[in-house]
Amino acid sequence: MIRKFGTANWQGGLQDGTGTISSESGVLDKVNYGFKKRFEGEPGTNPEELLGAAHAACFSMALANILGESDIVPDDISTKSTISLDMSDGPKIVKAHLEVTIKADGDAGKIKDAAKAAEQECPVSMLLDCEITSEVTIA
User: Fold this and answer.
1) Nearest Cα residue to 95 out of 33, 44, 48, 45
2) CA-to-CA distance for 81 and 69, rounded, in angstroms?
């Protein structure tokens, strides 16, 4: 079993407090996050942005794997995952939308089918308890 971790530290109240996040690899090392960064558009990171990056990365790898099963090796997979946080009944992630551009030689139908499969089969997609949609472009 593979195990990776991230850490977070928070100090203070919700709106006036500050926090830092770090990753096991050290790529993230005490990166600041806070209420204004998450809810008011202040520059900096937040959980939804980080989840979007993780989802985009996981999806891209899953897609490369599924394409490989059809002997299609992609030249490039560019993915953006937009995470939607709904505040109407308290904060809840309600949607993840994937925008994918794939450069690959192969049958366009197989490539689109692989992208649809990866949308549901990547481990981060399986973890999310929300609607997942995608928009696929083959370049």
Assistant:
1) 48
2) 24
Number of domains in the chain: 2
Provide the residue range defining the domain that includes 19: 6-39
117 inside domain: yes
Element (H or E) spanning 35, and its range? Answer: helix 35-39
By three-state DSSP, how is residue 55 classified?
A: helix
What percent of the chain lies above the pLDDT cut of 70? 100
Helix, strand, or coil here: 103? strand
Burial class of residue 131 in the structure, from the number of CB atoms within 10 Å of its CB (0-12 exposed, 13-18 middle, 19+ buried): exposed
Write down the pLDDT at residue 44.
87
Q: Which residues of the chain have pLDDT under 70?
A: none
Q: In what order do the strands lie in the sheet with 92-103?
A: 76-86, 92-103, 131-138
Residue type present at position 89: D
**Which pLDDT does position 122 carry in this prediction?**
96
